[in-house]
Amino acid sequence: MRTELSNRLGIEYAVFGFTPFPAVAAAISRAGGLGVLGAVRYGAPGELARDLDWLDAHCAGRPYGLDVVMPARKVEGVSVADIEAMIPEGHRKFVRETLAEHGVPELADGEESGWRITGWLEEVARSQLDVAFDHPVALLANALGPPPPDVVRRAREHGVLTAALAGSARHAVRHRDAGIDIVVAQGYEAGGHTGEITTMVLTPEVVRAVDPLPVLAAGGIGTGEQIAAGLALGAQGVWLGSVWLTTTEAELHSAALTRKLLAAGSGDTVRSRALTGKPARQLRTVWTDAWDAAGTPDPLPMPLQGMLVAEAVSRIQKYEVEPLLGTPVGQIVGQLDRERPVQAVFDDLTRGFERAMARLSRIAARD
Amino acid sequence: MRTELSNRLGIEYAVFGFTPFPAVAAAISRAGGLGVLGAVRYGAPGELARDLDWLDAHCAGRPYGLDVVMPARKVEGVSVADIEAMIPEGHRKFVRETLAEHGVPELADGEESGWRITGWLEEVARSQLDVAFDHPVALLANALGPPPPDVVRRAREHGVLTAALAGSARHAVRHRDAGIDIVVAQGYEAGGHTGEITTMVLTPEVVRAVDPLPVLAAGGIGTGEQIAAGLALGAQGVWLGSVWLTTTEAELHSAALTRKLLAAGSGDTVRSRALTGKPARQLRTVWTDAWDAAGTPDPLPMPLQGMLVAEAVSRIQKYEVEPLLGTPVGQIVGQLDRERPVQAVFDDLTRGFERAMARLSRIAARD
């Protein structure tokens, strides 16, 4: 399963695996795909440097990528405290009351919130980039549109390919014009931030819009058959995130969350602004239902909502308050039915792809 | 492009084309697919008999299908007038005022509303079936779940295959248990009634759930590349509706609506209950926006909503009030950019499929 793009990156399979867990990223790269580590939850640059060092030692010399969240427009002279101060008290009250209503315990005095999404901050993302360019990162992806022009230039100087996620052809063209090398077309069914257009429609639309730039199909892909479908749509590779969440290497730190993921059906996700302020697909929970209910506050715009709920998410996770426990995940969550090593998942992907190709060839050959 | 199912039906391509227009259905069947005529807008059985006679004369001996809308559960002793009486006056007032606000002219005295969706009524659907079984209909599809048991039996006696649309694996299993021969897995991106699960995720889920029953992939399919994707997902055929709307054989009777379809992007549809009472994807218009606006009445349940808006839709269409003019259509509307004969569309589908297969084979072969 090779394409021009996979050849350019020197990987055996055109399978890009996004994950917040270094052990998963390394296993994906070792299996022949490209593991892409999500950096959004890293705070201090030292933590990221430590994990990239670890990746260097555990990828068996295979390439890997890094996914940062860097807004294209910089807001000058605004501190985290300035932004925190913009959160209305009514919203804080709603969070406090919802947590209390469901018996979510408080963190201990002085205990830090483990769940963070401060990676989107310009200063944090910049320091992450300094770390990234000190490591043999093969691909630099940006989950929030194209990186700023100087970052694209710097990546090019370092021989690092850049990718950006797009939920519409219009966004994809904007990314191309910003000098991006690869567009990830992220369909409605994907986990995390998504638009309204599904992978089936979005992929070929983006392929046409940015041709000859390579496009990765993202959203709704968790089997080899779905990989074949994504490639049939003109993509030069596929971008998978949800399928790795229930691998044995994933460090969810929550048996309850793993159980929920394995039990969930394809209809058990919701596209909600409750997590970050932008529509993001995630497990539907009592927590997302609370934000969707009539008469409750509307989620705040990004980045306020993420800051507002960071501690709440942390507490829900730490104490495994099952009804409220969630995670970004796509509609393929319905296909996840057991914990397995990354290599076993990867073997299924390649075998499923071969099976789909054999069946398709028979259908095409009949006359 | 043959599958077990297409062989069983004696068609050259596993392409099922749903359309409300006899001329389009005939052209699809002549091109080597299976034209499936939608019967929901037919009232008197005589009209349907006339059009099926016409199909018999214009399909060049190729098979065709019929799509009825028949609720599995019968409501005894309820007349159209009884149901009409259940529509609240507040809803009627909102319709009157919205039409007046946008200057939609009234029908002439005694003029009948041309747009109807009375086909869902048990009595109407039953009389349609009597007509259907008098014609060489090869496939009987039902857009509202499985037909009643006696209809399934009757179809079997006549050697007519039955199909039912499903938006979830649960519904698909219910259809199978009712004795249906084929499940049409209708994804979120499809035009008309849809669920939340996209074609990429729904198709393989339904294939697994009803195996070995054949499944058709529906939603997001308007090119040969998308056909290849649908078949890669395990479908034994694809079900296309939107792509025929801008063919020269389509009798939209509205140049303005054709213009709107050709101009629309993939993001210009909305899944709304405004048309029938169940979520149905359609062009987003001033009319659907009015129903979605805060402080306006919620659409009524099916069948009340369809009855409530029938005359309004008829007036909007007759007078071509462009801002309000819409139609059920899927997200592939963004791909429709010119009027063409059905045969030209069909040629593109088969050529695109071959192109996708050639590209996929190259990707699979590289090692």
TrEMBL record, chains A, B:
Keyword set, alphabetical order: Dioxygenase, Flavoprotein, FMN, Oxidoreductase
Entries under Pfam families matching the protein: NMO
SUPFAM superfamilies in UniProt: Inosine monophosphate dehydrogenase (IMPDH)
GO MF term set: dioxygenase activity; nitronate monooxygenase activity
Entry keyword annotation includes Flavoprotein: yes
Keyword Flavoprotein in record: yes
PANTHER family tied to this protein: 2-NITROPROPANE DIOXYGENASE, MONOOXYGENASE RV1533-RELATED
Protein's name according to its UniProt entry: Dioxygenase
Originating organism: Streptantibioticus cattleyicolor (strain ATCC 35852 / DSM 46488 / JCM 4925 / NBRC 14057 / NRRL 8057) (Streptomyces cattleya)
